[in-house]
């Protein structure tokens, strides 16, 4: 595997400040995963390994921007045939015109295009309702880009628009980073996969919630399963996982069946981050497994797991996938954002005309606030007053 840590700290960061934890998650990875060449369609959602440079001028030839006539010099013009998109045509003599379609190659010698609605034909003579200025309704070769020009930087996520642009300027394949593979292990005997919670059993909320978030960060989910509250089962699941990154939920704290720390010790893992000064989610952890793969331990409380995902899992996966770190935005605050006395808080918020407003139902075990949220506000210790500003993280 290629995810060997280099710049990671030798000793685990314990209860470290939130910004440091995010940095540590990226630094845990020396370099992004190797590159692969993929057919355009297969590259959707992956990350460009190098800048996308134009393989050709765009347009690749002078083109008519309108349906009408390509004309040479001032009118009236003598009509000399037509040229459709996909065809090419011989040179146009001064005083001549050819009927032309939008997107068709402009004949050499043409000085402009007269739109269909601005011209009138009289036998083989074309009269313009106004003048055709030089270059009128022509998209000149290289108007959008020149061959070799960088269009997008390395690290760009391949969206449908990127696929279209790559095709337009001549690409058949794209070079992207291999996706980091993830196995999601959901810990807890109390979890139900269907039906109503009750009698001590709760529905697994993280099995449905986390995979799309991990995928949006560039990961390929290769497995998702429940692991019962059993030390040996957990140790073996971690030891034998084929994934670049194992993501666990639950078992991070000190309960009677919270075996994650012991299982990591038994597998010879090295803790890089062991607790973060953030609420919710402070028991989150990041470890390096003996073969250089990584494990992110998310707390079991659902909003705490989300906090762990944005703090540790997404930065780590982004780095493996070759993406730049997720940006924090700074935004005005419209209603005070309550803080923790010593730790960062991640609060579900909505955006209003006046700024960010916190949502109710933001407890660690709740998802009701998050389900309405437009972002997570990063609230420093002590909170942010109503006229202040706060950083926000996008919720995937
Ligand atoms: N003595 C202490 N107890 C706890 C501390 C502490 O510092 N000292 N921290 C609390 C905090 S904060 C959190 S968060 C939790 C973290 O607990 P674990 O990661 O060990 O998670 P579990 O105990 O397995 O579960 C906690 C809670 O979450 C529910 N859960 C678990 N998985 C899911 C899931 N997939 N979907 C929905 N709900 C889930 C589980 O049923 C529990 O209710 O520890 C505190 N305790
Ligand atoms: O992570 Mo715990 O709140 O902080 O539930």
From TrEMBL:
Residues in MoaB/Mog domain copies: 183-319
The UniProt entry, under Gene3D superfamilies, shows: MoaB/Mog-like domain, MoeA, C-terminal, domain IV, Molybdopterin biosynthesis moea protein, domain 2, Molybdopterin biosynthesis moea protein, domain 3
What cofactor does this one take? Mg(2+)
Q: In which pathway does it act?
A: Cofactor biosynthesis; molybdopterin biosynthesis
Q: Which UniProt keywords apply?
A: Magnesium, Metal-binding, Molybdenum, Molybdenum cofactor biosynthesis, Transferase
EC number(s) reported in the record: 2.10.1.1
Q: Where are the transmembrane segments?
A: none
Protein's UniProt keywords contain Metal-binding = yes
MF terms in GO: metal ion binding; molybdopterin molybdotransferase activity
Question: One GO cellular component from the entry?
Answer: cytosol
Asked if the Swiss-Prot or TrEMBL record annotates the protein with the keyword Amino-acid biosynthesis, the reply is no
One of the protein's GO biological processes: Mo-molybdopterin cofactor biosynthetic process
Substrates-to-products reaction catalysed: adenylyl-molybdopterin + molybdate = Mo-molybdopterin + AMP + H(+)
Give the Pfam families listed for this entry: MoCF_biosynth, MoeA_N
Q: Which family does it belong to?
A: Belongs to the MoeA family.
What's the stated role of this polypeptide? Catalyzes the insertion of molybdate into adenylated molybdopterin with the concomitant release of AMP.
Protein known as: Molybdopterin molybdenumtransferase
